Amino acid sequence: MQQNEHETPNLRPMRAEDIDRVLEIIYDHDEDDAATAEYTYRESGLTDKFVLVHEDDILGTTGFNAVEDTDRTYWLSWTYLDDDYQGKGYGRLMMEGLFDILQARSARKIFLTTSDYQDEEDGDIYESARAFYVALGFVEELRHKDFYAPGETMIYYGYRFPGLAEAEPVSEAEQAEEKELGEDEEPLIPGALITGISEIPETKDAYGLEWRYTQDGTYFDAAMIEKVLAKAREWNARTLFASFPSDLEAIEALLGPKGFKQHGRLVDFFEDGIDDCHWRFDFQSAPNGGAAKGKPHHGGNKKRRGKGGRR
Model pTM greater than 0.85? Predict the structure, then answer.
């Protein structure tokens, strides 16, 4: 469609009738993302998903997902622009519109992930996307080497919204009042228990550690760690990833002796002062690292030419 240069595209909420066109745009960049997006759109709805439109033409898509149990933290969802409209400033226009929506909700931070995937013909196909996000003000916070597959790194970027007022320090009088109000209540002491492991989508034999909070200070023990490591070996896992809030201070003493390596953090992820600390266990470099049997891998061959934010 010929676009009138005097009319500016606008960002509006995504509708059910937009899904097929949006999936076409995503598919042209990443088949796996398109499959995941289709399932999410149809099963979970279109809340906080948007399209950039000019008249009846959809030029791109973006959106966000709120992170539970955080202070106004979000993940950027599938963000793609039709090839015909790239290099014309529409990507920035789309993201600025999204930022306006998030700032109206007093968003504090938003994160995205991408990779350094090297295509045999086109080389580093996400280089321009990474430069685009940096130009918007995103800051690289963490890299997981060999995350998706050997040789392909996952890269995390974070953006802190400007103009947020710093939290006022709690006065001694307020602390005394809170203590008095809570005298009859049992104190909540956070802990963590492991609930299992699962294969991470779009990866080759990478697994994630699953856990839940406890409110009585109870933590998993060494035996539970050994159990999940044995299960991961049985399934021929290449790497086991885990992340925990930085205020769960017992985690380092539990994971470190078992061979997990702390691998960086997402700053102020949960709230200001509480980061998301990332750990990994690489089986090939650990004692008894290999496995005899493998769980069937559920990934597929990718067609990937460009990427916005994952999630």
Answer: no
CA distances from 292 to 232, 288, 295 (A): 11, 11, 10
3-class secondary structure per residue, the chain: CCCCCCCCCEEEECCHHHHHHHHHHHHCCEHHHHHHHHHHHHHHCCCCEEEEEECCEEEEEEEEEECCCCCCEEEECCCEECHHHCCCCHHHHHHHHHHHHHHHCCCCEEEEEEECCEECCCEECCHHHHHHHHHHCCEEEEEEEEEEECCEEEEEEEEECCCCCCCCCCCHHHHHHHHHHCCCCCCCECEEEEEEEEECCCCCCEEEEEEEEECECCECCHHHHHHHHHHHHHCCCCEEEEEEECCCCCHHHHHHHHCCEEEEEEEEEEECCEEEEEEEEEHHHCCCCCCCCCCCCCCCCCCECCCCCCC
- The residues with which 112 forms a beta bridge, in sequence order, are 157
Query: Domains of the chain (ranges plus CATH)?
Result: 10-160 (3.40.630.30), 191-285 (3.40.630.30)
| Tens-place pLDDT, residues 252-285 | 999 999 999 999 999 999 999 999 999 999 998 7
